[in-house]
Amino acid sequence: GQMVIITMSHTSILQLSSVCVVLPRDLRVEDNMTTAKMAYKEVEERFKGEFPLLDPLKMIRNSTPRIAVIEEQLASLEQRIKDHNAKEFEDLDKRLETLHEKDRLIAERNNLEVEIDKSLSLLQMDELKCRKRVLRRLEFCTESDVITLKGRVACEISSADELLLTELLFSG
């Protein structure tokens, strides 16, 4: 294959190798690019295509125990991914598509539930305003929503129709 120079972000790097190769300064020159290609091929042949990875625990002298735990968890997860039988499914793409559709539908359902809750809240607020208006007209509370004596009596009466019974008591 042909070697080319590419620009990329450091966040794109997933792993580093412990192999150190000295490269010429300017790889735009064809001879230098050929030298770099030969050095790469030599390293690839020496390690049979499996470059040794840089071990951060060995390289960092004051590593914390937390780093070791994270490394173990990472290795465990990588092994689980390797051993997973998802590769055996012939219709894996279809299953993944179905899973993504399910996730999308769940998110849509959650959004609709939030909208329903907001709508119900608005309806309840309208109903509350109407109830307050009725209580003010019947003089059970003042315009500033303070409960009057008539309102307190209505609260204390436990009958089938408290409002009607209170009106009968106060109006005669």
Question: How is this structure best summarized?
Answer:
The protein is an all-alpha fold and 172 residues long. The chain has helices at 30-46, 56-59, 65-83, 92-137, 149-156, 162-171.
Key attributes of the depicted protein:
172 residues, mainly alpha, Beta-barrel_MTR4, coiled coil, 60% helix, Ski2/MTR4_C, Superkiller viralicidic activity 2-like protein 2, 0% strand
Provide structural commentary:
Residues 67-122 form a coiled coil. Residues 2-117 form the Exosome RNA helicase MTR4-like beta-barrel domain. By secondary structure, the chain is mostly helical. It folds into 2 domains: 10-74, no CATH class; 110-171. Helices cover 60% and strands 0% of the residues. It is built from 6 helices and no strands. It has helices at 30-46, 56-59, 65-83, 92-137, 149-156, 162-171. Helix 5 packs across helix 6. The longest helix has 46 residues, at 92-137.
**Which regions are unreliable across 5 or more consecutive residues at pLDDT < 50?**
none
Whole-number count of domains? 2
Class based on secondary structure composition and strand pairing: mainly alpha
- Tally of helical segments: 6
Strand content: under 5%
Radius of gyration computed on alpha carbons:
37 Å
Q: What best-fitting shape do the alpha-carbon axes yield?
A: rod-shaped
Main sheet, how many strands, which sense, barrel? none
Series of secondary-structure elements, N-terminal to C-terminal: HHHHHH
Beta strands, count: 0
What is the rounded distance between the termini?
A: 104 Å
Mean of the pLDDT scores? Answer: 86
Query: Roughly how much helix do the residues carry, as a percent range?
Result: 55-70%
Coiled coil: 67-122
Protein name: Superkiller viralicidic activity 2-like protein 2
Pfam families: DSHCT, MTR4_beta-barrel
Domain ATP-dependent RNA helicase Ski2/MTR4 C-terminal: 145-172
